[in-house]
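Feature request, filed as a ticket because there's no other form

It would be nice if the structure record came with a short human-readable summary line next to the tokens. Right now we just get the raw output. Example of a typical job, pasted below so the devs can see what we mean:
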Amino acid sequence: MAKKKKKANENPVIATNRRARHDYKILDTHECGIVLVGTEIKALREGKANLVDSFAMIDNGEVWLHNLNIPVYSRGSWTNHTPRRTRKLLLHRNEIDSLMGKVRDGRRTLVPLKLYFVGGRLKVELGLAEGKQDYDKRQDIKRRTEEREITRELGRRIKGIKG
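Raw output as currently delivered:
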């Protein structure tokens, strides 16, 4: 029997939180599961989710995701879910304890970075983040523009050599 070919996009990303990388310096990332109800997973398979303004908190030794917006399932009925309900994240006890120690001082927070499927299960990439100041953001913008100009100039020089 022939082997099945792997799909080009094996782990499709449902949603990314691009704003988090702009507002925070990501120190560490963790992959964790999430507890969902049936209509939520169906809505996610349609590619609908919004991570903006979402955050995670540790409460009584459990990690909870707040403000994740999963719109109602289009073909759902009275069994549809509440779009912005609090959802439980699934992590190992030692990971939760480690995160609890790092978040305790108040300078760091837990921010979801992206939602994606792995083997039919939804995963959340959770980032341990530290807030950026305005000058940090300006330095990042300056660095990106400098890199863009350098690559543009190198491209011009390479085209000049070839032509």
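Something like this underneath would help us a lot:
The helical segments are 18-23, 38-45, 93-103, 134-162.
The radius of gyration is 20 Å.
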